[in-house]
Amino acid sequence: MKLSILDQAPISAGQTARDALVESMKLAQAGERLGYKRYWIAEHHDLSGLACSAPEVMLSYIGANTSEIRIGSGAVLLPHYKTYKVAEVYNMLATLFPGRIDIGIGRAPGGSAEATNALSDNYLQQVWNLPNLVTDLLHFLDDDYVTDNQHASLSAAPVPDISPEPWLLGTGKKSADLAAKKGLPYAFGQFMSETNDLAIIQQYKDQFQPRKEGQKPEVILTVSCICAETNQKAEEIALSSLIWSLQKEKSGGKNGVPAILDAKEYLQNEQNPDVIDVLKQKVIIGDPDRISTKLKELQKQYKADEIMIVTITHSPQDRIHSYELIAKELIDAV
Fold first, then answer.
1. Which Pfam family, any one of them, does this sequence belong to (predicted)?
2. How far is residue 167 CA from its own chain's centroid?
């Protein structure tokens, strides 16, 4: 089974943002050692407890500290930016790290309304214009963009020998439709989706229009997992992430991912403890056998080409160990 990593660069209680970013680099190194195909890091803006606002900066750091694993953005929030500059940045990365760069494209704001306004004066307009933005970006990445009479051509230099691989990320029908029309591989965020997931994936495959000769639809299914040696231990470790999700809904989760003991104490004082069961519905929690069984079921159900895993724990060691246990069960090379 092809497995990959999605990292949201969470900051745990007691950590600094720098600590979290260093741990992200260590996670990418571990992913490479364990045989994960790719490592993507997410983009967020002014969200407490998440450290990465500039994936392109982190990818330089991670690329310099790894040698084989594909690395990329999950995602570049394209409505905030000019496509030419995005192409320049990812062409630069692809020049530095040949054959390893992915550019995931998303439309979400990635932060508060205030952060969105600070990043872009016309974000909503650009969301509506996303199909055209994607077209422009693809032309720049393919180095075939002709602008107007003032310029014979415009290249997003440096033009790498191997272009970044573009992906479209999403959780709904609009993103699936756009990926199909643009002939892009599609990364579906199952762990965030609230809709009929299977219908969305099938829609993408049915409507897919190849951008290049021989191209076929390709799907990454992104899921949330926490694995430990026993189901009981996994449930205990997962409580930190679940409580943090609850804290973010109530007060922003400004103190970061809580320690397990603090999470247990918080749950004891929670007026509606059943809410944890609701949060668990989007997380796969368990020992290696349980996780393996569930991921195999999901891959078969969705006919996914690849499974991408996001794991949030308080302890960086618990996070890497979770990926280790899953890799030993499912990655052929391990």
1. Bac_luciferase
2. 11
